[in-house]
């Protein structure tokens, strides 16, 4: 059933999703379950992508074996907090996402738009995979989890250790869990509307 006219979220929801949400560096000893990860994905996947292409792929590193494989790819500044996080999501994308378009976008021959145009396919996969990673962060916050998204790793090493057999490519990482406020830095400044926006 279609929703009625959308109403703005209340201040509590806006605080949880944006105003009070932070990038976490320390983690409480509280697990993140597989069911929680599935719930986050099932919410995040509803965000829009070009032609419903849905190129993002996720690898959830949560075992000691997985952490041991991930550790050599991390920069020094990201190692400790990542090893302590209950889960680290490798946000990746499938360069051949268009093979799935007959299923995901069945009302047009969308596969042909990308299969013969590698540059367009790569741009579309990276852009929309990044969008889906952002949706994942918002979905995780909405479902009571904290996130620590980051770069600062060797993509080639991550791809070799986790993704090569599937042909996926890594984009960025997200540590996931219940954040320890003791590890937060003061919030950094943000641009004002007038500094970053133009009305035309």
Automatic annotation (TrEMBL):
<dbReference type="GO" id="GO:0016491">
    <property type="term" value="F:oxidoreductase activity"/>
</dbReference>
<dbReference type="InterPro" id="IPR050461">
    <property type="entry name" value="Nitroreductase_HadB/RutE"/>
</dbReference>
<keyword id="KW-0288">FMN</keyword>
<dbReference type="InterPro" id="IPR029479">
    <property type="entry name" value="Nitroreductase"/>
</dbReference>
<keyword id="KW-0560">Oxidoreductase</keyword>
<dbReference type="InterPro" id="IPR023936">
    <property type="entry name" value="RutE-like"/>
</dbReference>
<comment type="similarity">
    <text>Belongs to the nitroreductase family. HadB/RutE subfamily.</text>
</comment>
<keyword id="KW-0521">NADP</keyword>
<protein>
    <recommendedName>
        <fullName>Putative NADH dehydrogenase/NAD(P)H nitroreductase OL599_07980</fullName>
        <ecNumber>1.-.-.-</ecNumber>
    </recommendedName>
</protein>
<dbReference type="InterPro" id="IPR000415">
    <property type="entry name" value="Nitroreductase-like"/>
</dbReference>
<keyword id="KW-0285">Flavoprotein</keyword>
<feature type="domain" description="Nitroreductase">
    <location>
        <begin position="21"/>
        <end position="178"/>
    </location>
</feature>
<dbReference type="Pfam" id="PF00881">
    <property type="entry name" value="Nitroreductase"/>
</dbReference>
<keyword id="KW-0520">NAD</keyword>
């Amino acid at each position: 059933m279609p929703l009625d006219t959308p109403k703005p979220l209340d201040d509590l929801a806006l605080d949880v999703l944006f105003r009070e949400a932070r990038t976490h560096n320390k983690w409480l000893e509280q697990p993140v379950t597989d069911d929680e990860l599935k719930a986050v994905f099932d919410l995040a996947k509803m965000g829009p992508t070009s032609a419903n292409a849905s190129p993002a792929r996720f690898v959830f590193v949560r075992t000691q074996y997985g952490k041991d494989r991930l550790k050599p790819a991390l920069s020094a500044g990201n190692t400790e907090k990542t090893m302590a996080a209950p889960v680290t999501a490798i946000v990746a994308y499938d360069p051949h996402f268009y093979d799935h378009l007959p299923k995901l976008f069945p009302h047009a021959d969308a596969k042909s738009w990308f299969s013969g145009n590698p540059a367009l396919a790569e741009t579309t996969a990276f852009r929309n995979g990044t969008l889906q990673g952002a949706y994942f962060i918002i979905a995780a916050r909405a479902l009571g989890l904290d996130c620590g998204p980051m770069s600062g790793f060797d993509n080639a090493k991550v791809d070799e250790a986790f993704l090569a057999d599937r042909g996926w490519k890594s984009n960025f990482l997200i540590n996931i869990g219940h954040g320890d406020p003791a590890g937060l830095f003061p919030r950094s400044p943000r641009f004002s509307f007038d500094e970053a926006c133009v009305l035309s």
